């Protein structure tokens, strides 16, 4: 069963509690929380204090996607603030092995993110360590961009690699996923689908989640 992870980046921040209640009603198990530092990506979003407030107001698992240069300094703060999963970009982490182990020892599931143009071979050696791999299907920094189709090839290759190695990490995709392409995304072998504008940009976010889940099964 595919998981839909609503991305709070596309939510109305003045009505965050209400928006979370809407997707909770649709039965999601995770929220996706995009942290941007204005350096690794050309945008700034939100950080630890917002996560702390969120942690008090929801029991859903929170998947923190760190689009920041200094993940080693900040990842433990996000775990302490209540993150259940923390992912870091391969492109920003020169000591990836150490960073993954650090996140896990702090008590969260650890993921590694690859930008669309970063090949899978860059994470080959850490596949036995990670809890999940997040494949970006847009260039990170902004919601509402178009899906980059060649990422589906990466999903298929990663799924095959996982099978061959007998591993059980989850495969996540992020960017430009909508009710129109989620069928292809699910078919390629994704476990977790992040959806921002297609959920919170819809008139009814709960219905949008249900429609995406349905389209993923068709
Ligand atoms: C992009 C973020 C995404 C973003 C996705 O840099 O990592 O999580 O919220 O938004 P949509 O689904 O609108 O492409
Ligand atoms: Zn994200």
Automatic annotation (TrEMBL):
Any GO BP: pentose catabolic process
Claim: Methyltransferase is one of the keywords in the record: no
Gene Ontology MF, one: metal ion binding
Top-level taxon of the source organism: Bacteria
Binding site for a divalent metal cation: 32, 34, 65, 174
Keywords (A to Z) from UniProt: Carbohydrate metabolism, Cobalt, Isomerase, Manganese, Metal-binding, Zinc
SUPFAM superfamilies: Ribulose-phoshate binding barrel
Annotated EC: 5.1.3.1
GO annotations of cellular component type: cytoplasm
Active site (catalytic residues): 34 (proton acceptor), 174 (proton donor)
Cofactor: Co(2+); Mn(2+); a divalent metal cation; Fe(2+)
Note on cofactor: Binds 1 divalent metal cation per subunit.
Coiled-coil region(s): none
Biochemical pathway: Carbohydrate degradation
Reaction(s) catalysed by this chain's protein: D-ribulose 5-phosphate = D-xylulose 5-phosphate
Family, per entry: Belongs to the ribulose-phosphate 3-epimerase family.
Function in brief: Catalyzes the reversible epimerization of D-ribulose 5-phosphate to D-xylulose 5-phosphate.
Listed name of the protein: Ribulose-phosphate 3-epimerase
